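Go through this chain for my students:
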Amino acid sequence: MKNAAQNESKSLKTFYLYLFLVILVIVVALIIKGIFIIRQSRFDGSHDFTLAVTEQNKVKEIIAFQPQVPAISTLVIQDNNIPYVTLAKDYGITPDGYIQVQNNSDIGTDTTTFMWSTIIHSADWKANLTAFDKIRLMFLSKSITANNKTTETISLLNQTSQTDTIITSALTDQEIADENISVQVINATNITGFGQRLGRVLTNIGANVVDVSTAQNIQTKTTIQYYGDDSYTVDRFEKLLGVTATRITTQPIANIVITIGTDKSNTTEF
């Protein structure tokens, strides 16, 4: 009897040890996955974030989240056939993320409700956001009062000066606007209008673009140079273009100089 009791005690200890190890592995795996998701997140919780809502790769809405105000601006796109990939090139709009819905009945609802739908439809709705992004955007929209939520219906195919003003007002990153750092764009490619395209994108997010010009020689690599202190504006441009900026000691005509090289010939960012 004594041996049986000892064996049973050892079996229980082995079982609990095994159970503890299994739980530990699960917890560690969840922590690693959580860290990975957070690192992959696009929305940092404190800076402006622009979200494109699409259906069948056609743009239906642009939602601009402004956590510093806080406010939300929604642009409803009247046109039915604006491809998502042409937003930056043709209309100067570069979203930070997108969500492609499968049922447009969810479009046009309250932003909080819509973001909740993006969470429960994660398996069906294609997006380049993490679950963490969606949750944070949902809680941000829930915290914003109705007075700070605006909706404008616009046509991108038939733009007017008023349309341009509405787009810029919605997309302006307030921190970039507040820093008000002068920016020069140099087109060092053989693509006509490439500099103007980037200049339009930067202007729409609140940048102070003071000059757009064409280089005499073609340059292969896109560069960002800046004079003065580090800034959020430089950080934002680095993320937009996928380029590491370098500090210069001699001030050119603008504090930030972006030279577009041929490596960006096929970009969808502008």
